[in-house]
Specification:
The structure is a homodimer. The first copy, chain A, is an alpha/beta fold. In chain A, about 30% of the residues lie in helices and about 35% in strands.
Chain lengths: ~190, ~190
């Protein structure tokens, strides 16, 4: 999506260790008007797939997932990263390794909010090694529901997450796919 | 707001220890169409106050804050709960005690996203003891910016957070104010 690629080039900052900072518009400060254009693109891509639920993971996926759910006129569910007092005992759960934070954590979704007849679109801001997406697709499958596909804002295509998910038979649509990036040469898209 | 009170009565579940579960529409599964009506009400209440930024805290505030930012046509910023590799060193920070989780944590906002000329509307899903709001107002004040007010979905008015914040001179608008609640007698609103 050209509009997004231009925004990444103009406002993204590449840091050490292949960290792409897009926190001025995507995952710390959110340019909601701009994100709505991305959400509308997810709708265009998946509008004929019978999606009846949007699923994401806290925290930075929530904004774009919420905006996307508006276009589909369906509820959005976000997986939580740890069990709190406010969640009933009856949950679907899987483990996710975070390479950004160097930790492994559990994600959970209440069984009340994923049902066998759900057709789920998974939305997230980033796809790199694919661990979060794998965890989310497991939750959906454990519920007996169907993963219609994944909508990703930025895919680091030089890492293997996208290939792993696509090879598992799940449709993945990424609005920007980064082929390579470096402090010296900037960002190159696929 | 009558619509919200009705929804709390019909879909909220009161658990032990004064926990009100509204995770079917507010903070786990999100009924985005419904939440947009709440967001519009925040806009009605604060539209003449020159708001140029919405601030919330991850995770469950992000959805409603994002929707509210749409109506104001301004960016939304969410405070993060711990320092990650993706945040620059230059941050405003304060400490927040969570009574739900029994922990104290740091919240941070990059100095890039709060400026002295900002007029900030703080949005959150719950107000109970007010610790998150106090932390967020401190961040805004540390930036030399102005807190226009707070927009809260559900205030537990039988706890003292709302009084503390209002007594500090900050306008607080809560769409539902719960006077008392119990498993036996249900919810009573102010």
């Amino acid at each position: 999506m050209k509009l997004l690629e231009q925004r990444i080039v103009s406002d993204g900052i590449i840091g050490a260790g292949n960290v792409l900072k897009v926190d001025s518009f995507l995952n710390h400060q959110m340019d909601v008007e701009f994100l709505n254009k991305l959400a509308e693109e997810f709708y265009r891509l998946y509008k004929d797939c019978g999606v009846n639920k949007i699923l994401t993971i806290e925290a930075s996926g929530i904004g774009i997932a919420c905006l996307t759910a508006q276009f589909f006129k369906v509820p959005m569910v976000f997986a939580k990263k740890s069990k709190t007092k406010n969640i009933a005992g009856d949950v679907y759960t899987s483990k996710v390794e975070s390479f950004t934070h160097g930790t492994v954590y559990d994600i959970i979704v209440s069984k009340n909010f994923l049902n066998p007849d759900d057709k789920v679109l998974i939305i997230d801001d980033f796809l790199a090694k694919g661990q979060a997406l794998l965890g989310l697709t497991k939750l959906v499958k454990d519920a007996g529901a169907e993963v219609v596909g994944c909508g990703i804002v930025i895919e680091k295509a030089f890492q293997d997450g996208g290939e792993i998910i696509r090879n598992s038979g799940v449709r993945v649509e990424s609005l920007a796919r980064i082929k390579s990036m470096s402090v010296e040469d900037g960002v190159e898209f696929c």
